[in-house]
Amino acid sequence: MNASIWWIRRDLRLSDNPALAAALAQGTALIPVFILDPKLLASPNAGHKRLAFLFAGLRSLDADLRQRGSGLVVRQGDPLEVLHTLLHETGGGSLFAEADVSSYARRRDERIMRQLPLKLTPGLNIHPPETLLKADGTPYTVFTPFSQAWRSLAFPGRPIPPPAHLPTLPPIALQNLPGSLCHPSSSPYPAGEAEAQRRLATFSQSIISRYAIERDRMDIDGTSGLSPYLRFGMLSARQAAWTARDAEAQATDAASRQGAEAWLNELIWREFYAAILYHFPYVRQMSFRLGLRSIPWRDAPADFAAWAEGRTGYPVVDAAMRQLQATGWMHNRARMIAASFLTKDLLIDWRQGERFFMQHLLDGDPAANNGGWQWTAGTGTDAAPYFRVFNPILQGRKFDPQGNYVRRWVPELTAIPNEFIHSPWTMPANLQHHLGCVLGKDYPTPLVDHDAARQRALAAYQKGRKI
DNA sequence: TTTTGAGTTGTTCGA
DNA sequence: GTCGAACAACTCAAA
After folding, report:
1. pTM greater than 0.90
2. Could you tell me the distance in Å between the CA of residue A4 and the C1' of nucleotide C1?
3. DSSP summary character for residue A183
4. Closest residue, CA to C1' of B9
5. Catalytic residue list contains A373
6. What's A138's DSSP letter?
7. pLDDT digit string (tens) for A396-409?
8. Which of A86, A233, A335, A348 could hold A11 in an S-S bridge, CB 3.0 to 4.6 Å?
């Protein structure tokens, strides 16, 4: 007996899957396997919601595989041991997986490759990190030149269609997925490749044409909402990029063209942060920028809890955090506002916020999440001014003009008129009583005064950049 | 090696 | 209400 093992990690799809294609090209039977790695399951960055999304994705993938004559093998344990056993059981053969960029994944794969015939394929990114370097051979650390270099490379070939049939082996023991981690069927983000394709179609047919203008609006479904699917490879980066390219080619007006262009740019940001993590793995532990490693962060558990639970008294921040807790997703603009509030207004270490987001986001990805947090904290690759402090009131007025995002996630503010929705503490006391929303009783008073907090942050950053 | 232009997503202040 | 300048100095990328 001889078989090819397709080791699935964050590529839960049959279409446009180079690792699967490489395994099938061996011409032997295929064993699709997912390994529950206790180290990853116990990580402080693992999140219940994301694990449940992953398991639902595995069930969906299993169903897709069965339709094609195969079935998913799920095993628990150290990947090296599991794969070793599996190769032994199946009489040896080949082993393929999609390359990943995180330190843990890379060390794990290097260890396995020393002992087993593991071959890694590209697929996570359109242009793998090691292919994009400056003329002197060092990696880019600024987005704009990176994106120019990225665009100067040949556009990738069209996505590979899914295989119609899979050469199968007699059934192999399947371990049941933990039932405790059940992704609710009512989740706004049902897992699976078919769902990812459905969303991609919806997005490319209408939303993308307004994406350049509406992607920042928190009260509108103006984004793709595809991040959880890209996170687990239920959709490939190449499929996304081709969708952007086709949308641009088919655009009949400037706005549509700009929308497609803006979305491709976001995909390049994803590639950029993957490359940053690949080339500078230390960013998971510390500031990218050496000059900003001594900011005097506050140790303030009560303030952190208020932020995490969405009761800071700043409606747009609270709406953001409650959206995250309720759905496992947060609008990108809201992520920046919430992150800015934690790091600047509360002066709490970005690493605490990074971990919290990892624990709650369906799309929690080490590279993108870290890049976003370091950008907001001003410690990252972005060389822009450190004194850029988001004003939660202005951001709310600008990107949630009628307050509908706030009202959706902070129901106690439903009755508040538009003019006070982003600063309810400015309401006259009699109006508060009249509307049944008394500050300090029905909704918190602001945790900090933004103007004072801003001054404190500027001073702290000034101090932090001295050394 | 030196020089030059530029850097996602902002806010505030004063005219 | 709108608009441009100031916010500081630094680092990066490429010529």
Report:
1. yes
2. 68
3. P
4. A333
5. yes
6. P
7. 999 999 999 999 99
8. A233
